[in-house]
Amino acid sequence: MIEVDQLTKYYGEYPAVRNVSFEVPKGRVVGFLGPNGAGKSTTMRILAGFLTATGGKARIAGFDVFKDPIEVRRRIGYMPESCPLYGEMRVEEYLRFRGGLKDLSWSTRRKRIEYVLSKCWLTDVRRQLIGTLSKGYRQRVGLADALLADPPVLILDEPTAGLDPTQIRETRKLIRELGNQHTMLLSTHILSEVEMTCDSVVIIDQGKVAEDGTLAAVRQKHKNQSLEEIFVRLTGQEGI
Amino acid sequence: MRPLLSLVRREFAAYFFSLIGFVAITVFLIFTGLLFAFYPLAGLTDSGPQGVEDPMQSLIGHELFWLVFAFILPLLTMRLLAEERATGTLEMLLTAPIRDWQVVAGKYLGAVLFYLVMWLPTLAYVPILVGLDFETGETKIDPAPVVTTAVGVVLVGGMFLAIGLFVSSLVRSQLVAALIALVFSLAFVVIDFLQPFLDPNAGVAKVVNYLSVPEHFRRDFTRGVIDTRHVVLYLSVTAFSLFLTVRSLEARRLRA
């Protein structure tokens, strides 16, 4: 469903992503891991069509990200890091606007908004201004927006960052549920989350893929160590 | 089409979410109201013999009007893209399934719509500007200048808004966007002040005349004339600015 081939992105002289290749098969939930600044967000932004790559190819649902950007964007729900929203709009109003941007007809828009509002526990705050919502609720609005057009692919950049433990657990449960219907690429720093929600992992470090495979295979390759141990060994300095 | 309409709706509504839309409308209406009361109204209601009246000319042909106009329009455009860049919402917008030109068109049309709303209340002056006789329904003053001025005002507003939108796509700070847009729009107005110092036959004077917006209105639009040179200038600057805005959004994707 997501095919990334030799993707490279330079910010000026600095290579943020170097020859990254991986694949996400249909229906799979893949955890995208790596230390801060490893190139996770850059890769996801390229897949979502916000940035263009310096080199390489990426295909989503069979469409080339650079040649058919609109077709690709129709098929993904993207939630950027920190989830920027229009603070002066109400939750429902915002979702109606986003539904229009995503070319949903009036009747499907109304149905889908009801669905995502209840799915993301937003029904209580549907009339509230987004600017007055707490961080957790804002993240949910972002997630609701990603789900709005019922896209086959979800790309979520740190969906649980900044949430309290209860919210993290709720979000995790939601992600697990969504994993049954959607192909998903999600980045996170919480490794236990990956173990609970993902089928496989891609670990990148300094713009390069350091490890790629199903959870079981990756564990086996590293002699059944914990994911945290593997992560630190692949991306950190020795002896930490 | 639906994505574009959604965007136009939001952009238009956003003017009413923030104070800036109301501030712009208020300043504009107070100012045009004062100008109207001092010039055309006083002139037309004076007792004594009435001459050949060009009430539109004393209202919109006035340099003062254009100076204030040049300050108000940047207030309408500064927010459009600069705010989205500053808060990061541009990322949400540019990853939605709409093309860059649709984003630009949506924002532009939203601004133009608000601009038209800003002018709407001034229609109340029209009966006096055409010398309407309420009993017979006859106009004592030629109504053509009102129509041509309206055409000119829409076109020149479209130009200033397009320039402002382009500037807004270049920077993050709304204040900087407003100031740079102000410099551009003032240039089209202040150039008029050079006129008395130029030899009317020199080539420079022709260029100044070609660019000076107050001069266009003083000589042509407010007197019932639509000069295609002005129309071509406004439309081409508008088209060029919008084209540059689309390019500027595309360039965003190439960089960071």
User: What structural class do the secondary elements of chain B suggest?
Assistant: mainly alpha
CATH architecture of the largest domain in chain A: 3-Layer(aba) Sandwich
When the domains of chain B are counted, the total is 1
Low-pLDDT residue intervals, each spanning 5 or more residues of chain B = none
| Sheet with most strands: strand arrangement of chain A | 6-7-8-3-9-10
Oligomeric state: heterodimer
Shape of chain B: globular
- The SSE order of chain A reads EEEHEEHEHHHEHEHEEHH
**Biggest interface, residues from each chain:** A-B, 28 and 26 residues
- Major sheet description of chain A: 6 strands, mixed
User: What gyration radius of chain A follows from the Cα positions, in whole Å?
Assistant: 18 Å
Alpha plus pi helix count of chain A: 9
**According to CATH, what is the topology of the largest domain in chain A?**
Rossmann fold
Low-confidence stretches of chain A: none
Q: How many beta strands in the DSSP annotation of chain B?
A: 0
| Estimated helix fraction of chain A | 25-40%
